[in-house]
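Quick entry between incubations.
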Amino acid sequence: MAKRITPRSVDYSRWYTDIVRQAELADYAPVRGCMIIRPYGYTLWENIKAGLDRRFKETGHVNAYFPLFIPMSFIQKEAQHVAGFSPELAVVTHGGGKKLEEPLVVRPTSETIIGHAYAQWIRSYRDLPLLINQWCNIVRWEKRTRLFLRTTEFLWQEGHTAHATEEEAVEETLRMLGVYADFAINDAAIPVIQGKKSQREKFAGAVDSYTIEAMMGNGWALQSGTSHFLGQNFAKAFDIKYLDRNNELQHCWTTSWGLSTRMVGGIIMTHGDDQGLILPPVLAPIQAVIVPIWRKEKERTVVLEAAERVRAQLADAGVRVKLDDREEVSPGFKFNDWEMRGVPVRVEIGPRDVAQNAVVLARRDRPGKQGKAFGVPADGVAEVVKALLDEVQAALLQRATEFRGANTHTGIRDYEEFKEVLVEKGGFLRVHWAGSPEDEDRIKEETKATISCYPLDIEEGPGRCFYTGQETDNIAIFSRAY
Amino acid sequence: MAKRITPRSVDYSRWYTDIVRQAELADYAPVRGCMIIRPYGYTLWENIKAGLDRRFKETGHVNAYFPLFIPMSFIQKEAQHVAGFSPELAVVTHGGGKKLEEPLVVRPTSETIIGHAYAQWIRSYRDLPLLINQWCNIVRWEKRTRLFLRTTEFLWQEGHTAHATEEEAVEETLRMLGVYADFAINDAAIPVIQGKKSQREKFAGAVDSYTIEAMMGNGWALQSGTSHFLGQNFAKAFDIKYLDRNNELQHCWTTSWGLSTRMVGGIIMTHGDDQGLILPPVLAPIQAVIVPIWRKEKERTVVLEAAERVRAQLADAGVRVKLDDREEVSPGFKFNDWEMRGVPVRVEIGPRDVAQNAVVLARRDRPGKQGKAFGVPADGVAEVVKALLDEVQAALLQRATEFRGANTHTGIRDYEEFKEVLVEKGGFLRVHWAGSPEDEDRIKEETKATISCYPLDIEEGPGRCFYTGQETDNIAIFSRAY
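Done. Structure below.
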């Protein structure tokens, strides 16, 4: 009856898939590479959306919706863009029973069709900046797929902004990177690193791509959100122009930025353990679950009544709470089930607790007795639970930060040591780097490690590149990556 | 400079399109039959979504997400379904540069792929009812399109539920019809009629389709939301079975229900006038706009400061408020502009108002001086505005209800009179009806009128069918329809 999750040490990849499926976050779809996001996973996504959408609106953005279908000719207008996305396109060739004159691409990203619209809407400097975000589905025909991390169809938001000057566009690019980092750290409890992508890894059509990079439980990097400075590349391809204050026509400067359902995978692999999922309270669909415990029938009513009073108290205090009153399974089964689903706090109520007008609290992030508090007075339990949720949230961030620290390796002197550390320890290799894109390719081929990012926040000062031996200020983080 | 809207009496259809485009609700897309929902229109949709989503959750539903792509073979499993949807499909034939083995349909509705999932998820009566909703985009290759009312791609929600008994499924179908009606009446101020669709007009694959029907400003009917009792049609096609309490396998009974961006068109055509849009306060993106008025430069600062104080006061009170401090256009231009965009309440502040510590309030639904209140004290203006918003909301519903009453025609004795009333008066023809589906076809061909619905709430008692002369209890509403 009880579900089994493969331990991380046995097979990290199976551990991940076991959690996604057994916690009912998502399922494989009958269409290759697609997934069904089940209610529990979708509610997590709704909470992610709410946290981001609030931040977007606070920074002056509005939402809109652009078409799913993009004429093939649009994709071809920006040279790097078409080169990058061509291999991944899904193409509609027939509509209403007839062959279409021009095939339509199912959007792999919307710079082109939004660029076309902006060219119609923007007339003068008064129309700028134009700050629009879209929540939608995206299709990229991926060869190897994995639930949430890389699927043919996924959900995301894509921000698209147009500005009068290069400076303003760069500022927006970095502002939204900061918004992503703030969300990841404070809502998802994931201590991301803000950095710049290498030229090899940047978005097809961008001048510069920025990223938030997270370390997963196996030491690999997960690119968790990106913000692109597009220069005038798309403005020139789509004729996005404005009349400046001197009545002269200028091309706009544009940005785009996106964060997707991939974030769900990042949360699983940052916080989860061998018992299953651990969800940060800010995003958890259920923050506290109440498990009533009784043996005899006469205990049942009094325990359930007390449980219901606690449920109402927590709900009134704004805690997302569930009372698990199933009768066909045991309390022990319920404990495992909700642990596997990552609910941050469990409230246990048995006949002795009722007699004392108390409850037992258990926190998901600390196993066994160590994470339990006994005899917590039932009156005012809502305040205690809320404080405990805050504590769990902070503890998850701290643990992930410590884990990242322990698995980040510095002071690597040469390529031999680099390879040794990568194989023996894994994690992030934070190194001085002055190599070329071709050097980067060679390292990727030989070690499978790529440049996760050039971190923005560096303290190292100058040093010698481990690969070329050249003196440089530049720091790169190499790692295996999803 | 000022935009012109075609008067309704000149060309109702142009009036509609003028409003959609000039109020910046939506734009035509560069892809045939698709639209771009602009920020103002999308915010209206966000408010519609919030009102519905809250009601869905209150009635026990959860959200999930199913794939955009559906294998062609799925669509073909339910005979009526494939017959109804085949002519409208968009088909993906190529992915990742290769021809697909089985073409994929871009979802025109999701009964099939969700039915496939439910067959995996449902095992026993304990898994029932399963109550899931999805917010997503939909594609139907429509021949004639019109912004919001009928577009190749549109946004909607689709609820899909599975039940153990026929009775429960019928109850759910009617419950969600009631939820739609409650939303339409109380949030959109549209006095819809709840009814049943004729067999000719029902959903392809349903046993019975129910509808909320609204009367537009030209007397035509708009089907604004539908709720379908699917019987065991999809359960049998997709093998959705459960073990009942006696451990016997049974087919489930299913329902589906949807409401789309079409509702935006319904709001425009229910409330709008020759000045433009009129939005119900509950859904309006901007509920109150503040227009500061000054001539001399020294008046400017004091007026803007007073306007900002009022803005802050309204925002604190939870009113969605905008201060229009543009300098390049006149107050008169702003009045027209916001009237055209349908903002329910305008707050005017000039130097004399500032001197009296007062404001002028103007309500959108009553033109000219009749809709204005002068010398409203600036202190405590938020409460006055909130009460006024409630008043406008109620007045819009009342006006629409009276309009529908005045344009609903009863007591029609024969087909001659029917045709005469339809041509000369239009609107809803509420008649006794005992005709066959073939009679319905004939009337449609000869008059373009269709059965909008068989209303659920009838008081008429028995009477003679205007077409067949037969005695009947059945009432039908005939009308021209979108």
